[in-house]
Amino acid sequence: MKEINITSSFLVYSGIEELSEEIQSLMAQAVEIRKKAYAPYSQFKVGAALLLDNGKIVLGSNQENAAYPSGLCAERVAIFHAGSIYPEAKILKIAITAASDTNQTTAPIPPCGSCRQSIAEYEIKQDTPIEIYFMGEIGEVYKSASLKNLLPFMFDKKFL
Ligand code: THU
């Protein structure tokens, strides 16, 4: 028997002011698209902004449905759109922000498990790490230098 230890490392910024101008701008775009989320059931709005290696920025917000599982998270709306219109481009950075209509979200909101698995697919496909920045409505911003920090023991194509 042996034990395996896997460590994850994150940078914690005390607020958006501490981010580089590039990431502040990306996060500002995530905030704007977040406001356009269609979230009548949860009142929990999420925005995601992707920076691609071709210089394009692709945005997404969560889209809910009366048949709940038919809705989709902001991160997957954005990455699937990017994959559709720029199939050759690499995703360099993702900024994510979430805000509830009912209470102020101060904790950094990480991508859900399904979004992590979806982002993993693109990180492996492009063979380049994707930087992920996530925050609530206000407060700290967490940075993960790669999706791998968020999804240890990920399932990927090498198992197929
Ligand atoms: N949501 C996202 O958009 N991204 C996540 O990573 C977590 C959850 C959305 C899905 C749903 O519309 C709402 O937030 C509440 O779960």
How do you describe this structure in short?
Its cofactor is Zn(2+). The chain is an alpha+beta fold and 160 residues long. Helix content is 25%, strand content 22%.
Q: Element order, helices and strands?
A: EHEEHEHEE
CATH class: Alpha Beta
Oligomer: single chain
For the record, what is the CATH homologous superfamily label? Answer: Cytidine Deaminase, domain 2
Helix-strand category: alpha+beta
Task: Please characterize this protein's 3D structure.
With 160 residues, this protein is of the alpha+beta class. The protein has one domain (11-150): Cytidine Deaminase, domain 2 (3-Layer(aba) Sandwich), CATH 3.40.140. The protein has 3 helices and 6 strands; from the N terminus they run βαββαβαββ. The chain has helices at 21-34, 74-85, 113-126, and strands spanning 11-13, 44-52, 57-61, 91-100, 131-135, 141-144. The chain has a 6-stranded mixed β-sheet with strand order 1-6-5-4-2-3. α2 (74-85) runs parallel beside α3 (113-126). The protein is globular and about 50 Å long. 33% of the residues are buried. The model has no long low-confidence stretch (mean pLDDT 97). The structure holds tetrahydrodeoxyuridine. Tetrahydrodeoxyuridine binds at residues 39, 42, 44, 46, 62, 64, 71, 73-75, 111-112, 115.
Secondary-structure topology with pairs:
Layout: E1 11-13, H1 21-34, E2 44-52, E3 57-61, H2 74-85, E4 91-100, H3 113-126, E5 131-135, E6 141-144
The structure holds tetrahydrodeoxyuridine.
